[in-house]
Ferric reductase like transmembrane component-domain-containing protein
Amino acid sequence: MPGHISRVATCNFALLVFLALRNTPLAPLSGRSYEQLRPLHKTAGYTCIVTSTVHAIVYCKAWSNKLHEMLITANVAGIVGGLAMLVLGLSTISRFVRKSYEVFYAIHIVLFLLITVMVGMHRPVLAKKALIIVIWTGGIWFLDRLLRLSKFFRYFLGNYATITALPEDAIRVTLKAGVSSTPGSHAFLWVPSVRLMETHPFTFVRTDPAEFLIRVHDGFTRDLYLAAQKEPGRMIKCSVDGGYGQIPNFNRFDTIVLIAGGSGASFTFPIALGVIQAAAVAHTAKTIDFIWAKELDQLRENPRVNVYIYVTRDSGPSTLVEKSPAVYPSSDPSNTGSDLEKASSINSAPQPLTTTPVVRNERPDIARHLADRIALCASEQQVGVGVCGPSSMVSQTRESLSQGNGGTYGPSITLHTEEFEW
């Protein structure tokens, strides 16, 4: 019995590492990127911890009369590995991960390496197969790291980033080099002069040249913001590992609905602009509904604050739209919008402004909007829905589509959700 449990634990250990690979072969096969496989990674991890704990308890009970044998090197290694698994499991508490991601990540890497070595020492006989699984697990992890390092090296040579501090705790990071990636994908940014041993994921605003618009929090982003304030327009050495993300090809859809809450627009903006540019080149007509929910009440209620939102484009006559808050379509490529994480350098293909932005002082009725839009689509059309925002917004979108808004003979609908939990 204990032997069977240990095999289950060992196999789950290999599985959880396989599911955590950034360059996972499951991405092209399943259409899911590594971050979307994270729930499976967590499930395999918790299963590994539980089965390892049961394995230890059963053995301790069976050997209660000869506990001195626990001092054998192989058994000590097993005990150390088991304790490391428990500590690693405790470190995955959501509140701790959100508040101290850098610490969590460091614990994750250090304890993973420790556990790998300890499990190998716990079962050092190659003929018993456990060591083969451990070697395979360590091998695929090392290969994944090697691939990621090669990307960092590729984009490090001759590459610099210009960092610019923006109002409302935001930073623009513009790289000298472009990155081969798709709109809406993300990459891990490495700035050695700010944090030598850390990389952090951010969504591309554009990829040629690569550019990020980053909301400032604590840790790395705060240090990067302070560096930008100290020397405005400073150019520093940097590199990226990316892009990642299995984003559907939104160009194939006839109608596109993009829904974002707050900083989730950093995902929907590049997709919308990519579709516009591709449609202009192909001379095809696309319908895009761009929904962005952003809380402005605290600003609008203050009589000392004037709120201006600029809808920008490269060229064309400016059209003033009277709304509250005021909406000004402008030919100036600057953007003083409410969420400056997406501000500036967001330019579309030159087109005249033919529609008026609609600003409503209420929460978006996503279900109603989707139902109305889908009702206008023919049965042979394809509808693509992309959403990035709070979990409640993502859940509401998913539930709205699951209710069968398209009807039995409605259009084909594809939903893509983007939720980062770093």
Remarks:
- Residues 315-353 have pLDDT under 50 and may be disordered.
- The first strand starts at residue 160 and ends at 166.
- The radius of gyration is 25 Å.
- Residues 157-244 form a domain with the Elongation Factor Tu (Ef-tu); domain 3 fold (CATH 2.40.30.10).
